[in-house]
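One-letter codes give the sequence; the fold follows as tokens. Both lines appear below.
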Amino acid sequence: MKKILLLLGLVMTFSATAQTKSELIKHFEAYYKQMKGQGDVQGVINAMTHLNVLQPNQARLDTLAYIYASESRSLEALNTVGIDQNPTDTDMNTEVKAISLKALNQPERALVFYEELFKRSSSSYLAYEIADLKIQTKDLGGAKAKVDFGLVNVKPDQKRAFYESQRPYEVSLKGALTYLKALILFNMNQIDNLDESIAMLDEALAMDANFNLAKISKDALIAKKEGKQ
């Protein structure tokens, strides 16, 4: 009789636990929906974290990491999905690793994931990111190849944002790629290619007069040409 009562007690405990977990999942799903509707990013993060604890889900983890990355919380993004490259990684997972490692000034590691994304679906946007990282890692030939690809495939309405000035701004992706091409040309031969690099920066500025970074680079090259540096 005691054994039967003990068994009955255990069944009731498990049932109550399952019911409580189910209720918690419903609660945090509703909480997530509410926070998303209010545009409360931290609330969305809290809801998804609780849901992952209660009901682990890789797709939800990837989304959570993407939110962290979008909020420039790169370490938290990488702590959520890791930094290893796995063949089963989703595009979102791979993108999170790429942009987070780039933000943390890890160009060589970031390149691995950007190049994986490019293999899956090549685009002028990815070509720009890869070329930028390859310039940082001194792979000028590889950077030029990606810029050339980007310029051939870029569309007139594509834009690229820049944040180096106090007020962020956008320029055409074609102008941004032309700017990178000028930098690559200059770094390949800083004496013989100086005039051509300046002319190429002029091309970028003709496309987007507000291209602050291109103007700064042009002024620096002109100063170098005039012997001020």
Remarks:
- The first helix runs from residue 2 to 38.
- Residues 16 and 58 are 27 Å apart (CA to CA).
